[in-house]
Design brief:
- It is built from eight helices and 19 strands.
- It is an alpha/beta fold.
- The chain has a single domain, classed as Metallo-beta-lactamase, Chain A, CATH 3.60.15.10.
- The strands form four sheets. The chain has an eight-stranded mixed sheet with strand order 10-9-7-5-4-3-18-19, with no helix packed on it.
- The protein is globular and about 50 Å long.
- The N terminus is likely disordered.
- Bound molecules: zinc ion.
- Zinc ion (ZN) binds next to α2.
- Zinc ion binds next to α2.
């Protein structure tokens, strides 16, 4: 158990949602976790896409939900794990292999009493780059169906899950990117002596801007969710030297047409660790931590 002098400032934000929905965000000035309990991170097998469910002792967070046809899969996994509240959904960036399943999850929550969604965080994308795709519109409809409005990711916004603290790392401010991947909302999960870094589909430009802007100063992680499904255009040497992962998890589909994960990216990971786990080989991958130790479970195929 780590007992730290922990100053918690509770900031109340009033959102412009219909019905004046109120949310609270806890900002923690001290990164130490006050009382470690068990945190479980499920890298769900959604084929070629991302979906990660974080279960703390008090709060649950869902990062992405794979393609459109994976919404039902993610809902089934959520129910099987006995989760009835998702305190926060993070839609890392508006590509269908990340947000595709979210409208189904949100619709389910809106229509059923056994699941509640309390908040949805998204990147604040420059207006000229906001997509007009049907799936993005469905996502906004799903958020509204839960009487919520979008919470835009802000630097160092935090969520205390009870046993870990998630810190949000949005893309560097004032940047215009040619790919929506580089607007990915990243997040660091501090569980005590163990930690995770989630990257969405962040590629080299966003990595470089986060590093050069000093946003990632002092940020390391025991477990890295590889950016962009292990693509060669993510996980630069410089980024990996900052994060220093001891484990890498790659979320990608078996036999995917993109060739993910890329062999050069794998070589870069192997300079730091040989512990590289892949959902295309292992199915759903679960990591449980008490803040000191990690335990891995592979669904297998
Ligand atoms: Zn993707």
């Amino acid at each position: 158990m780590i007992v730290g002098a922990c100053i918690v400032i509770v900031v109340a934000f009033l959102y412009r949602a219909s019905g004046c929905y109120m949310e609270t965000i806890e900002e923690n000035e001290n990164e130490e976790v006050v009382d470690n309990g068990i945190t479980t991170v499920h890298f769900l097998d959604v084929g070629q896409g991302d979906s990660i469910l974080i279960c703390g002792t008090e709060k649950n967070i869902l990062i992405d939900a794979g393609e459109r046809d994976q919404g039902e899969v993610v809902i089934a996994d959520i129910k099987e794990l006995g989760v009835d509240t998702i305190d926060c959904i993070i839609a890392t960036h508006p590509h269908s292999d990340h947000i595709g399943g979210l409208p189904d999850v949100l619709q389910y929550a809106a229509e059923n009493d056994d699941l509640e969604v309390k908040q949805v965080i998204m990147p604040d994308i420059p207006e000229s780059d906001i997509p007009t795709t049907a799936i993005f519109t469905k996502l906004l409809d799903g958020i509204e169906a839960n009487d919520l409005s979008v919470t835009f990711a802000e630097y160092e916004m935090t969520i205390d899950t009870g046993s870990s603290i998630l810190t949000i790392y949005p893309p560097a401010e004032g940047k215009n990117y040619s790919s929506l991947n580089d607007y990915s909302v990243c997040a660091h999960l501090d569980c005590g002596d163990t930690s995770f870094f989630f990257t969405g589909d962040m590629e080299f430009p966003e990595e470089e801007d986060l590093l050069e802007g000093g946003y990632l100063d002092g940020v390391t992680a025991t477990v890295l969710k590889a950016g962009h499904h292990g693509s060669d255009t993510s996980s630069s040497k410089e980024f990996l030297n900052q994060i220093k992962p001891q484990y890498v998890v790659i979320s990608c589909g078996a036999g995917n047409s993109y060739g993910h994960p890329n062999k050069d990216a794998l070589t870069r990971f192997k300079k730091h660790t040989n512990e590289i786990y892949r959902t295309d080989l292992e199915g759903t991958i679960t990591c449980t931590t008490d803040g000191r130790n990690l335990a891995w479970t592979m669904e297998g195929r």
